[in-house]
Amino acid sequence: MMNKIAKTTYLTTAALLLLPSLASAQDLNGANTGWVLTSTALVLFMTLPGLSLFYGGLVRTKNVLSVLMQCFAIAVTVSILWLIVGYSIAFGPSESAYWGGLSKVMFNGVGIDSLYGDIPETTFAAFQMTFAIITPALVVGAFVERIKFSSMLIFSLLWTLVVYFPIANWVWGGGWLGQMGLIDFAGGTVVHITAGVAALVTALVIGQRKDFLSSVTLPHNLTMSFTGAAMLWVGWFGFNAGSALAADGAAGMALFATHISAATGALSWIVIEWKKYGKPSGLGAITGMVAGLATITPASGSVGPAGALIVGLVGGVICYFATIYLKQIIKIDDSLDVFPVHGVGGIVGTFLAGILVSGNLGIFSGNGLAPDMTIGSQLMVQITGILATGIYTAIATFIILKIVGALTSGIRVTDEQEQQGLDITDHDEKGYSM
Amino acid sequence: MTLTEVKGFDRQKRHTELYRGAEYVIDFLPKSKLEVAVADKLCDHVIEAICKAAGTGQIGDGKIFVTDLEQSIRIRTGKSGNDAL
Questions:
Q1: What is the ipTM of this complex?
Q2: Looking at the complex, does the CB of residue B1 fall below 8 Å from at least one CB of chain A?
Q3: CATH classification of the domain holding A129
Q4: Angle, nearest 10°, between helix axes A282-296 and A249-277?
């Protein structure tokens, strides 16, 4: 999430990020503001309804409403948490390299005239809020069809507070990973690795669904999933190109790179399934698309169009085999494959960004490394970012799950409730009256 | 005549469905269940009509079961027996 100044001189950027007040000296830019406002709407649209429909269609009829409700409730509560303390922790002016402090609690001092770079601070904060919403919503895919609603809600809030907000600070808020020069344009580490690793840990803690790997768990409405996936693709333009925080060439290139990677990721799954089973599945195609999008996310600000093709291809193929390995071979019920698609995609993309950023790769060149970096040194930074965010997320997620388990007498519904479906047992209603 | 969409299987081969790079075996296939209540004299005609419409000579064409109806009443008129059919 670097602004356009960041791309010209990294040293200046570090200083600006550390002292946001300096950036306020600029004048407001209407075009940039307009694009970030639009992107804010696009990214919220990714969760509501994009991701909700994508996930909702993948579960069984008896659980569809519970999934929609989980995503919606996360949007509602994380928004308020963002106002209260999230923005301050992630983007506050603290000089600590690990969090932003509490000086912007309740948006203290953020007024109509406050600027972040050359856009209104409220606009920047709202844009960032939509990222804070979708990240815990992504984790929902790991525990669908068997988690208590109360446990889900407390877990999501604690997790966003303890994992998402600080890591957003580390990478984008002037924290230590950003200072090291980590390339994560739109959330390979902050969003996808955190969500993916949290999903993996949660799936292990909550355990398999009773009917895991049986045909009865197959998606109940792929039309819904297709609709949601298509919304994700479009919304991702705001997610990645919006992260330029400007209506400029960087945004244009990020949007195009994002699009190419989505297409390549989808094509890779179509080809593999077609070759392996004789038929390409629709769900495979849209899953490959999400893999391509997750993989390009960290790299979208630094690669060129041909580099994006590589990112989509490598991300698509690796995520495909990760999905099969995790579910079919080692039999972890990360129900909607959050880790193999988002976590692995985030890791692959964050790694590849360190290579494809280079300006010396011919047609596959990116925007060029920072002056004091080589591909080797950049890759070390990328690996540090991947490990730091992954390990911190894993440990914190595990502890939070144990706390939530103690608070809600276990995070899992009873076998009988699971059999009956969460729509009735958690919400006293049904998704469909037919 | 009542037509119901149901799921079932008999000797027909099961099929597989793809889910993210893995095949799942589907035991229960979508079927149609047709219920027809007629007077005795029409019974053979109905069987013939169903066999003609549904028959392909392949496994999965389905089965016909014939059973006696103890009683039949048309609610609107209150009439019973063949008058109700």
A1: 0.79
A2: no
A3: 1.10.3430.10
A4: 140
Domain span at A39: 35-427
Examine residue A333 and state whether it is found in any structural domain, yes or no: yes
pTM of the model: 0.90
Residue A11 located in a structural domain: no
User: In 3-state terms, what secondary structure has residue A33?
Assistant: helix
Contact A215, B24 (CB under 8 A): yes
Domain count, chain B: 1
Size of interface A-B (CB pairs under 8 A): 39
Contacts of A215 in chain B (CB under 8 A): 17, 24-27
Contact A327 B22 (CB under 8 A): yes
- The residue segments making up the domain with residue B7 are 2-84
Q: Is B68 on the interface with A (CB under 8 A)?
A: no
Is residue A41's pLDDT more than 60? yes
A346 in any annotated domain:
yes
Chain B residues in contact with A327 (beta carbon < 8 A): 20, 22
Instruction: Please tell me which residue of chain B has the smallest CA distance to A328.
Output: B22
| pLDDT tens-place string over residues B1-56 | 999 999 888 887 778 899 998 999 888 888 999 999 999 999 999 999 999 999 99
Question: Cβ contacts of residue A94 below 8 Å, gap of 6+?
Answer: A100, A101, A103
